[in-house]
Amino acid sequence: MVVGARADVGPVVSSASSAGSGRPPAQESPTYLQAIRLALIEEMRRDERVIVFGEDVAGKKGGVFRATEGLAEMFGDERVFNSPLAEAGIVGVGIGAAMAGYRPVVEIQFADFIFPAMNQIANEAARIRYRSNGGYGCPMVIRVPYGGGIHGALYHSQSPETLFAHIPGLKVLVPGTPRDAKGLLKSAIRDDDPVLFFEHKKLYRSLREPLPGDDQLVPIGRARVAREGDRLTIVTYGYYVQIALQAAERVAAGSGRQVEVIDLRSLAPYDRELICESTRRTSRALVLYEPNISFGSGAEIAAHIGEECFAWLDAPVTRVASPDVPAIPFSAKLEEAYLVSVEGLVEKIEALLAY
Amino acid sequence: MVVGARADVGPVVSSASSAGSGRPPAQESPTYLQAIRLALIEEMRRDERVIVFGEDVAGKKGGVFRATEGLAEMFGDERVFNSPLAEAGIVGVGIGAAMAGYRPVVEIQFADFIFPAMNQIANEAARIRYRSNGGYGCPMVIRVPYGGGIHGALYHSQSPETLFAHIPGLKVLVPGTPRDAKGLLKSAIRDDDPVLFFEHKKLYRSLREPLPGDDQLVPIGRARVAREGDRLTIVTYGYYVQIALQAAERVAAGSGRQVEVIDLRSLAPYDRELICESTRRTSRALVLYEPNISFGSGAEIAAHIGEECFAWLDAPVTRVASPDVPAIPFSAKLEEAYLVSVEGLVEKIEALLAY
Amino acid sequence: MSTVSNEALVSLYRTMRLARAVDERLWILNRQGKLPFTVSCQGHEAIGAALAHVLRPGHDWVAPYYRDLALVLGLGASVEDVFLHALAKATDPVSGGRQMPAHWSFPTLRVLTTSSVTGTQTLHAVGAALVAKLKRSDEVAVTTLGEGATSEGEFHEACNFAAVRRLPVVFVVESNGWAISVPKREQLAVASVAVRAAAYGFPGEDCDGTDVAAAAASFGRAVERARAGEGPTLISAECTRLTAHTSDDQDTVYRPAEEVAEARKRDPITIARHALVARGAWDDAREEALAAELRAEVDAALGRAMAAPDPAPDTLARDVYAEGRYEGAGGVCRDTSASFVREAA
Amino acid sequence: MSTVSNEALVSLYRTMRLARAVDERLWILNRQGKLPFTVSCQGHEAIGAALAHVLRPGHDWVAPYYRDLALVLGLGASVEDVFLHALAKATDPVSGGRQMPAHWSFPTLRVLTTSSVTGTQTLHAVGAALVAKLKRSDEVAVTTLGEGATSEGEFHEACNFAAVRRLPVVFVVESNGWAISVPKREQLAVASVAVRAAAYGFPGEDCDGTDVAAAAASFGRAVERARAGEGPTLISAECTRLTAHTSDDQDTVYRPAEEVAEARKRDPITIARHALVARGAWDDAREEALAAELRAEVDAALGRAMAAPDPAPDTLARDVYAEGRYEGAGGVCRDTSASFVREAA
Ligand SMILES: Cc1ncc(C[n+]2csc(CCOP(=O)(O)OP(=O)(O)O)c2C)c(N)n1
Ligand SMILES: Cc1ncc(C[n+]2csc(CCOP(=O)(O)OP(=O)(O)O)c2C)c(N)n1
Ligand SMILES: [Mg+2]
Ligand SMILES: [Mg+2]
Q1: Mind telling me how many Å the CA of B277 is from chain A's nearest CA?
Q2: pTM above 0.90?
Q3: How many CB atoms lie within 10 A of CB A277?
Q4: Cβ(A352)–Cβ(A286) under 8 Å?
Q5: D188/C160 touch (CB, cutoff 8 Å), yes or no
Q6: Contact D199 C199 (CB under 8 A)
Q7: How far apart are CA A272 and CA C148, in angstroms?
Q8: Which residues of chain C make contact with A302, given a CB cutoff of 8 A?
């Protein structure tokens, strides 16, 4: 897996090689973005109830990030179409289609623009099954490009996943690698309940890896040990998995102490067992997350560890996250100040190891 | 202070005594609801930039809970008026009015209906000051009746305050007594930033207490020790302050052990100092909150205590909250099963004391 | 101008009367302290009955709102189910005792589950209509809402989405002049919501929602347009609210007595009975027989419903996800193990 | 049909040319890698210039969107401030380096702060208009948005609110036929958004947004109606998008070459120049002089802006609340002490 290269906020033409073919040449390691596109194609081939709509997802554009590039051509403009510019409409129509038996995969262009759809997501999608006594389900996937570090400023950088993880009835996925992006998106599309699928924009073109065969699912709710270690457990997800891995390497290079890195992959439900098993083994935990620190996703993880691993802990469960300011500024200097850096994280790890 | 009496989900005619007069007779102890109305009246008298609008707040009705009863008559139907049935509109127009120099106090009829306004609250109100480099402020109060235990079922019982506490730029208040409701609402109206003011419906008519003189403010961000104790700290807010107090009395009556109860009053910002001071003294903490447990408000509090009081803790920080189901069912049996009872809480306290 | 036969009108009248009888009984239960909440369809019965009349139950999709008791009865919901739902019994098929009364869901009738949140259901109807069109079926979707709810942004998004994709959906606004205490003139600055159709590019019309035959004619045209692939229609059906907004509302506070008296004159049931009598299709004997029949039906259904058990506390956490509470085919579900309910239950 | 004098037209032309010059420079900076993002007003200059022309800067309220460079320049924003903002410099008066380019806020000009979220600003204009009316002032509020953004529910809520309360607000839709890659026909099923005004009960009209004099006449009437207390107006100003959606968009992928060629024929700047020439109010000499003048102005402003410092990292957490970061008059603010920024900064 290669980290690096550039990842832009906006639509950048994807390398022509894979356009239209539906699959990159076998020898290639697809990017996170290509993996998502492949999952969509496979699932649309497999199940014709799967439909795709949202802003700019159809036509020649195929999404501002090109995740749905070529899909309209492949599957026709009835199954893949542009919606009007209206997020409540996108999600609400998706809910109706799901109740009527289809499996809509809708796109919210940027996570920052999901709020107009909040009512449909929180009050409707999440409660369809519960309020109808199981009479209706809402098998819908909402794809949500999110995250910072791409010069997106206040409205193209947000990480609002915590808000959805708090709402029972929803599932919230946050894949950190191409393999997980593909396998989890496929699981999400086959899931009978509404799934928020958060795709980290900074990973779209910066991560590649070879994928297993066509039909590999990744189970919802299971975390992954991204790096093994015995001295401290970092629980994280999304782009920060990469930061955690780099920081862990530096710590190991410096003092030989091995830090375990857990990639949650799934935020709701999250893998309580794996987190506790690891923390009980390492006796130290650091929760790293991109949302604003207060009331953010990692608060739940930290609280859970504190409750379930109390007797095993040798140091306070420490949170490292974004400051409580309203999203990332446009200025590169300020964006840098906002985000967690490898150096900053290494310091936090060292401090915790020394506790 | 008297707890008890009934509190209904819906509009119940308030006792005629205080109608129209603008103030209950001096000898009376106003209810939580009357305290809110008094705060509105005092602040509207004090500052003519204060205006009130929302669904049903004007005319003869004065709100489905009658919190704004008589205000249209008192202050005219320009300063107090009914809006169309549109929550994004209510908040968005409020934001514009605030930027133009007024101090709107808008009402969302039930917390459950705040989601259509989420975009205006999260993306707009919260960020006005930040994104304009301090050029504009957004001095607006959003009053939000919330909470369960009043047969309100899925859509008249929700406690969504966590979602707002997570958004920097907002202040989130959750008063638990008439005195705090009045003093905090006055502070909120005078505050230069957007404030979400959560009023617990179950407290509206069930709590009364004498109020201090007209112009008493309660500072935003300061918790209150509702009961002193030395063996365990309960951190809570809203209606559950009452449950916590009752449970604490029972524990004291049973074994003489004294439980401290902290009423947060303000969720964002919350009083980190008081919580830590108390927990370090008692060495045990229990966080009690009404939202769904996972990723709920108390996760932040618990994580913070775990981080800042690690060396003082004799037992894991324990959370007691609502299950992860989509809000409270209509069935009285199910509503009872959902909510935290005094008995249930006593058991949790005893278990924690015995740890 | 009526295309409704005498037999059909009698049947419509029966549906309206049945809805009224059930509705009145719910109010009585409320006053007796046996039901903490009720929301009424009184004044709206002609709209519901007429709409059910022009639809194919179980084939067409319906996204209703809380004033649609007559509609769901007309489609075939049983009175017992309505009571089981209102009383939040374990066997409530609508919501398992979870939702407030009149928050419909009848999957076999293709009545979609509804929330309390005004206007949201209009988008679900559009979604169902989208699927109907993708399947190349002749299914139609219908949604109802109050005139107050048309102020919500989601209504706009629903209309526009339906227009752009020319979907088989009918929007019926049950315009009773009030949104709780807010009169129509404070809600919108046009005489009728029907003019809004032109903003999206499809037909809109007004109909008298207190005249069941006129309403059926209007709805019938719209449904046939949709079925024929000619796209959406918006209908504003004028009616009255004969009760307080809900049992939690005391409308005497804000509603002038004359307005209530005027509303009563437009009781759709009286109007339908007069029409039947004028057609020579009704008389006092039939009226009495019907009343007795309905009373018996309602009594029996209520008796059975009252005897049904309350939901068991452990059903609280069911149906949050398809797989149930902990583990399932698709993966692991959010568990509630850390939550208090386990101990409390 | 033009009510614009020659002098006024020259001034409007200058504003349009200035906006174009600044806009082009921003694209160059972007191509040079000095600016990670730009969003263009090219094709929209006549609308912005005309609107500024009929408003009283600093008296009337303006809630614009990201294509309104010409509008803010016309109202009196300085070129240097525009560059300071685009380059996210410490002294950016618009947002202190926090917002993306073209996310305006000029308090002294009463230009309200704008987000990227399409359509939200329409409600803020209604709020400002509400205050204008409550104050019994003759202030007017104007808001602009794209035709795509009219699909958002908030636009509907804004129009309806303004109509019911008869507020002094003008809605100007800058209808360029595209919402990123989505053509107008996939966005709405009516020929012009202007017909939507009737849905709310106020006047709507189309205007040619590439003809600055015609646009000024249309906007002027609407603003005077509002000022006279006659309520809102909705105007659909047809224009073209002469560039890609933003610097992140490659519109050649989805946009037919002929459409682009057609759009270029409707360049509002060419049209205005021709009009001036036809009036005998313009010639090549003046054109050259203007070009030189603008180049000098832009060069100088950009030079100063480039030399300005970047924001200091510790400004990151400023302006979250009025009182600053920790403590203040009104109470205690949310602190960020537990957060990572302290260490990182
Ligand atoms: C989003 C939302 N906001 C507010 C409410 C509270 N509420 C319930 S019904 C109602 C009035 C609805 O009026 P209308 O749409 O005309 O329907 P009617 O009750 O008159 O049939 C209001 C404000 C709600 N249920 N949902
Ligand atoms: C709520 C929201 N959804 C999506 C976007 C992404 N987006 C930015 S501009 C745009 C198209 C806007 O089209 P239009 O309103 O016609 O304005 P134009 O850019 O053509 O001037 C979209 C979809 C956004 N900014 N906000
Ligand atoms: Mg109504
Ligand atoms: Mg456009």
Answers
A1: 17
A2: yes
A3: 15
A4: yes
A5: yes
A6: yes
A7: 45
A8: none
Token readout for D198 is 């009737």
Reply yes or no on whether the pLDDT at D340 is more than 50.
no
Task: Round to whole Å and give the CA distance between C161 and C201.
Answer: 11
pLDDT averaged per 10 residues, chain B (length 355): 33 35 61 98 97 97 97 98 98 98 98 98 98 98 97 97 98 98 98 98 97 89 98 98 98 97 98 98 98 98 98 98 96 97 98 97
Contacts of A110 (CB under 8 A, 6+ apart): A145, A146, A152, A155, A156, A158
The kind and range of the H/E element at C228 are none
Query: And the tokens for C185?
Result: 């003139």
In whole angstroms, give the CA distance from residue D162 to residue D154.
Answer: 12
CB atoms within 10 A of CB D198: 16
The predicted pLDDT at position B349 comes to: 98
Measured CA to CA, the distance from residue C20 to residue C41 in angstroms comes to 8
Out of A59, A156, A331, closest to residue D311 by CB: A331
Percent of chain C's residues with pLDDT above 70: 93
Domain boundaries, chain D: 6-311, 312-345
Going by CA atoms, what residue is nearest to atom 21 of ligand 1? C146
Rg of chain B, C-alpha, whole Å: 20
Nearest 10 degrees: CA dihedral of D289, D291, D296, D299? 180
- Give me the residue label for tokens 């007017």: D140
Strand partners, A195: A141, A171
Distances (CA, A) of A332 to C41, D88, D97, D98, D246: 59, 8, 9, 10, 19
Distance CA C202, CA A15 (A): 43
Whether D225 is a known active-site residue: answer no
When pLDDT is averaged across residues A18-22 and rounded to a whole number, the result is 44
Q: Which atom of ligand 1 is nearest to the CA of B55?
A: 23
Q: Judge contact between D218 and D203, C-beta under 8 A.
A: no
What is the reported pLDDT for A212? Answer: 83
Cβ neighbours around D150 below 10 Å, total = 29
Mutate to test the pocket of ligand 2, among A106, A109, A142, A156 (most ligand atoms within 8 A of CB): A109
| Residue appearing with tokens 């049996």 | B333
- Distance in angstroms (rounded) separating the CA atoms of residues A152 and A157: 5
The rounded Cα A239 to chain-centroid distance in angstroms is 9
ipTM of model over 0.90 = yes
Contact D181, D187 (CB under 8 A): no
From the list A56, A164, A57, A165, the residue with the least C-alpha distance to A117 is A164
Say whether residue A302 is in contact with chain B using an 8 A CB cutoff.
yes
Ligand 1 atom nearest C118 alpha carbon? 26
Instruction: Give me the CATH topology for the region C6-311.
Output: Rossmann fold (3.40.50)
C97's tokens: 């005792």
What is the rounded CA–CA span in Å between residue C192 and residue B11? Answer: 29
For residue B122, give the ligand nearest its CA. Answer: 2
Across A207-219, average pLDDT = 90
Q: What tokens appear for D7 in the block?
A: 């002098």
The minimum-distance atom of ligand 1 relative to the CA of C120 is 1
Q: For the residues A97-117, what does the mean pLDDT come to?
A: 98
Please identify every stretch of chain C with a pLDDT value under 70, giving residue numbers as ranges: 1-2, 324-345
Q: Is the peptide bond before C203 cis (omega within 30 degrees of 0)?
A: no
